[in-house]
Each structure stands twice: as C-alpha cells, then as structure tokens.
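ok so heres the complex, two chains, lmk if somethin looks off
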Amino acid sequence: MGIYCVAHHICSPIGATSQANFEAIMDGKSALRLHSDRFELVEPFCVSLFDEPKSFTQWCILSIEQALQQTQIDPTSQRVIFVISTTKGDNLQLSEPAMQIQAHFRNPNLPIVVSNACTSGVCAQITAMRLIESGACDTAIVVGCDVQTPFIVSGFQALKALSQQLCKPFDKQRDGLNLGEAVATMIYTNQKPDKLCWQLVAGSICNDANHISAPSRTAEGSFRCLQEILPYAEQIDMISTHGTGTLYNDAMEAVAIHRAGLDEVPIGALKGFYGHTMGAAGVLETIISMLCLEHKIIPAARGYEENGVEYPLNLSPKNRDLDHEPHDLIKMLSGFGGVNAAILLRYVNE
Amino acid sequence: MNENQQDIIITPQQVLLNGQSLPTTETGEALLTELYKRFVGDYPKFYKMDTLCRLGFIGSELLLQAEKSERFLVKNDRMIIFANKSASIKNDTDYLQTIQADNYYPSPALFVYTLPNIVTGEIAIRNNYRAESSFYVLQDEQTLQKLAQTTLQSVQTAHSALVGWVECESKDNFYAHIKIVWKN
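and the predicted structre for the whole thing:
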C-alpha cells in the first residue's frame, strides 16, 4: 500500500499559500528581523513573526481548511484522523486546542497530538503513515504549528541557544538559532491521485540515549534514522536537514550524513528563511523541499557562506538547478530529549 | 496476580507493581523520592528531574527491575511510547514563575523540562534504549494503547515497548501506568 500526499498548505510570515512560500524562497525572502521591543524581554532576539495575531488553534484551522479545499476529502468521515504537531500548542495547552480543531471539522475520531520536541513535524508524518498502513484510517490530516511567546523566547535565551543575528546553518560563523512562526498542513491518503505526487516511503525515529538537551557527538540516533530509511532509497536528490544554526546540532548532522555515506547529496537548510518554527518545522520544510524538487531546484541555504562542520556538506548559498527529474527526498530533524527522526519521500507517477 | 503481568501504577498514595501493592510511607512527590532512595539510590540525575520525569523514571526503574533481564545493555529493539493529556503543564507552570516581570530570572534548568518528551529521553539514557522514543498528547489511555500496538506492528526492528500513561499536574497530583508490551 502506498501513502500519498494529496494536498498541502503553508502560511508563514512570507506567504499565505505553499506556492507563495516557494516563490518567496526563490526570491531569497525572509521575515527574520531583530526585535528589541517584543514580548517585553530585555535581550533583543531575531525572529520571524506573523503580522496577524491569531491563536494556535485559529492558524491550524485556517491551514487545514485551505488544504482540504484542494481535495474532495470529507473531514466528517470516520476514515479521517487529525494528527497535530506542536510543542507548546495554544498557550501551553495541547489537548484542548486539538479537541477544538477536531470539533470545528466535525471529525468523529479523537485527534492525536505528537509532541516529540523539534522532531514533531516529521514524527507526525510517520504517525500518519502508520495509521493509514494499519487500516485505522484512509486519510490523515497532518498539521504542524507553533506561535512564539515570551515563554519560548526567554527559555531559548536562557539556554544561550539564540543568535542575535540571522542564523547561519552549517556556517563557520554560526552562533545559534532564530525562532519563527508558521503553520503547515499535509494531507496523506492511501488513494494514489492521477498525477505526479509525493509518496511517503519510509520513516524512522531513534533516540541518542545520550543527553536530554545536547545531540550525540557521534550522531548516534540521527545516523541510525538514516540507516533505517536508506534501504528504501533509490536516487536521493536532496537531504533537507534540521540545520538550526547552533554549533552542536549542525556538527552532529554533518557527522550523521557522513557516517551514512551521503556527503555528496545536495543539502537543503531552510531555517535561514523561516527560523526554527518548532512544531511546524517538519511539515513546512518537507513541503518546501518537495516544491523545490518539483521545480528541479535545490534551494539556497540562506545564511550559509563558508563550511563550518567537520565533514563538509554539499551546500550552497545560491539556488541550484537539478539536472534530472526528481526522485527521492529525505527530511531529517533532531530535538531535545535526544530524539531524532527522518523520512523518505518519493516523487511518483505510475 | 497474573504471572505475565508487567506493569506498574503509581499514584500520590500508592504503588502497584505487577498487581501487588508496595508498602510505602510517603505521599505525593516525596513518595517518588522514597522509591528512588529505596530502589535506585545511585543515579543523582534523579534530583535534577522535574516531577513528570521523576514519575516516569522511577516507574520504569521498578518495572524493569522486576523484569529481571540484564539491565543497561544497548538495546535497539525496545521502544518508549509515552502519552498524557496535560503535556508538561506542571513544569511549564514552574518555569513561568521564573519569568515574571518583577522577578525575571529564567531558569535554563527548568526550561529544558518544559517538553513532555524529555521523560522518554531520561528513560532512554538510563537504559541505553536507542530505538524509537515518542510522546503523544491524547484524550485517553485507550488511544495510547491502540497507537502503541500500531507502532509495534509497523516498526520491524522493535520487539517490545515501554508504554506509559504519565500524567502530572502538580507535586501532589499525578498518575502513571507503565507497561512492557511485546509484539504479537
């Protein structure tokens, strides 16, 4: 049985549809700005924020509606399940907003919230795949979202994880991450549409068993995620990394990619455009990577100039052309709690 | 008692290990510390943990001690699948106290625990479990049990999972039910 993405939607500070976001990326746009007067915090911080003040729940509903409009899927069906990816939900509540989203669409199934730190957006897609494969549903609507709050920003500041300039994934000068806001939706079903589309082929989640807030130096979990999905890969056109711009995350990912023998594969790193959008990141970055490959483009790693990791990766600060039809895409993420996740998607026609 | 039962229930007043009540004297968070001192004792990281992590940690310790198979070997075939309804609300509330306008000293040590999946990380580190760790926010434990079965069947390399419903709303209000679930 195949699992296919039949619709997707992104709303971020640089675009209100997936297509608008793709075009903004092609034009090198970003909403990352240094703010010194937001959230009444002492230290300034660089962040990508929505203009419009909507709640987490409102953003999720908006994005799901936009994605559903592209399909004939009836969200009131017994065969549809909502899978929600978030870390902090609506003002620290995760369960209630999930029920509000389910109630809004009059869906009969209890929603599933995936809260696996920064890997949630990829884990949610893996959960969707398992639910469909096991026959629990035919359609899984995956939505990822987080909105920024003084809670989150102050915490990352306290951890000294934030850069006060634009983040620089994998660069020599990188000194931390930027935070960001976005919502993104992917609708997965077991019905193959009669057109080119992306199939979710494999996924893996592995723990480093090393440290709750620092990645493994040997990239244990991240490497094992890649190792578990590689047997399903045919021709990998891009690895879309987590690439937060922190010293340790990027170093770890380079080790994982090197250990998996994938040093030559073109690398995507999108946080220079969006910042770290937390629960949205895995969904948002998967969609942008799909769209870029569909247009035969490896997107620029905004913020990257000079290699700053032990094993140099195939990265570029400029958009690059792919000289063949796209085939396989890997999306990987890592997060607090030592958790790592990776998925393999394939562009299919037959 | 069921011979094959492998589960533990911890409430602020009581511990039921494989169906049998453990005699204890303390209640609330002090009960978790009492259990730690009596049954573990040599893992000072316990004192850094928030209540949710202490609950999940001590529950898994007692359960795994009772399993009587060799501990701490690297294991790639046992997953950790935990869930609850209130995420990390107890520790979120504690962290919020550190960022009040009139008393602003955000604590990095507390902030790290403001994610519910940290408890799965603590258990993975303690036991060298390098397979999947997942945390879900769900409406009820039954949904967790179904999801755990689906996950076990779908992950080829996994043979068993620690499946835990771990709820922690305050130092005196928590509930854990952790099971060892084997692939059918």
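quick notes: The mean pLDDT of chain A is 97. thats all i got rn
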